[in-house]
Amino acid sequence: SVTASDVRLGMQASALTQAVLDHLHYSVGRLPSVASPHDYYRALALAIRDRMEYRWINTTQTYFDLNRKVACYLSAEFLMGPHLGNNLVNLHIEQEARNALATLGHDLDDILACEKEPGLGNGGLGRLAACYLDSLATLQCPAVGYGIRYEFGIFEQEIRDGWQTEITDKWLRRGNPWEIAKPDTFYYVNWGGHTEHYQDEVGCQRVRWIPDRMVKGVAYDTPIQGYGVNTCNTLRLWSAEAVESFDFQAFNVGDYYQAVNEKLVSETVTKVLYPNDEPASGKRLRLAQQYFFVTCSLQDMLHLLELAHAPVETFAERFAVQLNDTHPSIGVAELMRLLVDERRFDWDAAWAITVASFGYTNHTLLPEALETWPLPMFAELLPRHLEIIYEINRRFLDEVRTRFPDDEARVARMSLIGEEGDKRVRMAHLATVGSHAINGVAALHTELLQASILKDFHELWPERFSNKTNGVTPRRFLALSNPGLRELLDHTLGQQWLTEPGLLRKLDAHADKDAFQHDWYAIKLGNKQRLSSYIHAQTGIEIDPGWLFDIQVKRIHEYKRQHLNILHIVTMYRRLKENPALVLPPRAFIFGGKAAPGYFMAKRIIKLINAVAETINADPDVNTRMKVAFIPNFNVQNAHLIYPAADLSEQISTAGKEASGTGNMKFMLNGALTIGTLDGANVEIREEVGADNFFLFGLSAAEVESVKRTGYRPHDYVAGNDELRAVLELIGAGHFSQGDAEVFRPLVDNLTHDDPFLVLADYAAYIACQEQVNSAWQDVPNWTRMSILNTARSGKFSSDRAITEYCEDIWNIRPVTVKA
Ligand code: 26V
């Protein structure tokens, strides 16, 4: 029999069955006989949330009682992916949930498929934040994720006639069982207006900000359950609401409709997620979003201090505030404003607290990606913050002049205000000056960061810089998404590998064994079968699971060079057409990824992939040896099917451009071999797995720079390589576009005349390297051995390792056990 407390907390299948029926009745309001799978999804989600709620409250209480320092991870994006499956893994109740649903006549996998994932991020940066929350909870570290509750997340991608179209992501349409609204936890957010300088009662110069607009930020909390522990941390997302006390009637007498309109305008602040890979310049609403979530989060921290009766002076001992890229970097000026203007701290004391609290992670070196805001826009939206930034800058540049006398060029380079063309606030400089710790996200990236965009800062404060190579969570990206492999690993190593991924190394000893290779191969084949069915259902394309699965999934960008991959495909196509007897192991070339809606070239790359796919897949001369497929709407949910099915992982960015990459790690963990350049974390992946088990090609970052310095002429590569020339001509002439020679002209012209990412310079090396892949693939036992070694040596890339480093080197945060 199931007791009342079992219904909320019981971990047995019988208790879960009763809990689902209860929620179906009391929360969803449906009779079991008419309930849809989605109704069952909601009921199960609520039942699982109950089980976390108890741990959640316990966790919060433990942190509070012990006065523990908390890591506050400030991020404009959290790409969480579906919660249900992950929570089942972390609570260890997958099998019980499966049995409970079976009793009710449903299959757990069908129910899991009902969840619409919260796509509150663009790609790597947002997914990294989500992996870090998983690791923080699993490592029992006090932490809160702070971000924005976008009403519309990343757009959904549909492919029509080969082109990307964008559909708004209405993820909240059927409610969100994972969040708990906290209508009483809110803060006011001001905009615009002007400042007044005045003398306070004791004769001090003070500043008052008289804003002319105001909105309210309301908290929505989501529990983040650690794996195998009682710790359940919080993701707190802010949603904008109109301020009801800001009584519109008083301002617009009788104009009810104008008042309602003002409400709509207030609430647009958190309406929609922006693409992170489109130049932000001029997007006022985006700056408004950043300030909105950052001030709510900082006010929340100050409020928590107050609840703990701790003086504001202890802020930096209680909170480690991490800036996930520059998006939250306005926080540096905002904390100064809260301390100096509102709490009447003197400047130096406030500055000491600010610098001791903040850490800044840089995620890109691309100059066009560095955030800067035009001064007039900044002044209109945040007039007081601009004054504060000027004062930070004045004091900072004095320090620079003292350290480096008579070097005004250096002063201009380091200024928080850029003066190339129109004046702009440089957010990376603000984040750097306001932080005691600055880090890059892979060893190579950190080196380049220190040698390029933050060189002057590194010379001034070398001790503030460190590397924190990214990581991914093995719970979601192996245990949840690759159940076959999980079972084999559990059986071979015991379950501890999930929290001690160093144990994966023990697989080395099995890599040569026939029987083990056999099991390994069978699991991979099963995963490829699953993906093949999914691709067929989504696109109609049929792929033989026995073929080599060659996969490139990531945002579409020229620096990631999906078009280099296509040049290889078209090269093979031509070779097969010219020489039907050519021996070529059959391959499926699989792509996925979204393009920023305004990114002309990226959208054309998608069209090209689909055009090449259509031609090749329909051509009986080649389609028994190659197929091409573009999986629409790459997201976390379908990523679960994609990574485990890969034989070959494409990591082919121009060296020096990909800060780290994290997809590369997910592929490796699931036993894919990598073909890649020496870029981002690929360098460390190759170090770990060994050069013999990695397909390396292409120019190094240093060589890329030197080629560019001495004058890169892509046309020389076209002239010097008949095959490359033929491939480009085929694409340009409309062979893949029914004779339309216009569609791909911009792509081909860009490559032959400009080629900013050196696609043509790396083409020959890439083709040669792919030939090595072909020979390696033909030796099945050896390929399988290398596949095993990839998983075996992927331990370094667990987000647990990354988070441990952040805790020890930057945050000074220790784990705390939460009791049951
Ligand atoms: C922004 C922009 C803006 C202008 C146009 C080009 C462009 C390209 C990329 C971006 C994204 C910047 C921030 C970002 O998402 N970085 C990613 O962070 C991941 C997590 O650290 C890392 O693995 C990826 O390599 C890095 O691109």
TrEMBL record:
Catalytic class of the enzyme: transferase
Pfam families in the record: Phosphorylase (PF00343)
Protein name as annotated: Alpha-1,4 glucan phosphorylase
Organism in which the protein naturally occurs: Nitrosospira multiformis
Catalytic activity: [(1->4)-alpha-D-glucosyl](n) + phosphate = [(1->4)-alpha-D-glucosyl](n-1) + alpha-D-glucose 1-phosphate
Cofactors, names only: pyridoxal 5'-phosphate
Residue runs in coiled coils: none
Top-level taxon: Bacteria
